């Protein structure tokens, strides 16, 4: 009788423990999906601004510089979001996505390299329009490849 009175409160709290355990296991996955959504938004903005330069919507030097600044800002944010995504990958999947994570980092580095070349070209007194478009195109291509790899990471971790 005394034993039942001691165990009864713990038995009543057991369903709450299930919810707490569920919350603990789901929270990293929710954080992972939020990070991937933010990364996707930044990637989308990078591609949008690079396409403006590539397809000639951005015609003046001033417009090119504005789009280049936006590319740089969103590229920095995309790299930060990828780092968060990498940190939030559940431990049991880290080996499976290691190659994909390295590829995303390589593509971000490639995009950063072309962005720096784009900025250098725009800093010249008379910039070469073909070089500007080339670098914008390469930024776009690198970000698309990074997006593809991030999609693979997301698919592998949702198993």
Secondary structure: elements and pairs:
Elements: H1 2-54, H2 61-88, H3 94-123, H4 129-157
How is this structure best described in words?
The chain is mainly alpha-helical. The longest helix has 53 residues, at 2-54. It is 88% helix and 0% strand. Helix 1 runs antiparallel to helix 4 (129-157), helix 2 (61-88) runs antiparallel to helix 3 and helix 3 (94-123) runs antiparallel to helix 4 (129-157).
Summary?
This protein is an all-alpha fold.
Helix content: over 70%
The H-and-E topology, N to C, reads as HHHH
List low-confidence stretches. Answer: 19-23, 27-32
Average predicted confidence as pLDDT: 84
* Radius of gyration (Å): 23 Å
Strand content: under 5%
The biggest beta sheet reads: none
Tell me the structural class. Answer: mainly alpha
Query: Count the helices. How many?
Result: 4
Per the principal axes of the C-alpha atoms, what is the gross shape?
elongated
Distance between the termini: 47 Å
Number of strands: 0
């Amino acid at each position: 009788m005394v034993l039942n009175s001691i165990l009864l409160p713990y038995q009543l709290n057991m369903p709450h423990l299930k919810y707490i355990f569920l919350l603990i296991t789901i929270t990293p996955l929710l954080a992972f999906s939020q990070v991937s959504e933010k990364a996707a938004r930044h990637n989308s903005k990078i591609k949008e601004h690079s396409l403006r330069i590539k397809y000639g919507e951005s015609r003046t030097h001033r417009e090119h510089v504005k789009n280049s600044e936006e590319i740089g800002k969103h590229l920095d944010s995309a790299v930060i979001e990828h780092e968060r995504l990498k940190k939030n990958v559940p431990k049991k999947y880290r080996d499976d996505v290691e190659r994909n994570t390295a590829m995303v980092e390589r593509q971000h580095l490639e995009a950063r390299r072309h962005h720096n070349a784009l900025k250098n070209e725009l800093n010249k007194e008379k910039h070469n329009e073909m070089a500007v478009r080339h670098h914008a195109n390469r930024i776009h291509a690198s970000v698309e490849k990074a997006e593809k790899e991030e999609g693979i990471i997301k698919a592998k971790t949702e198993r």
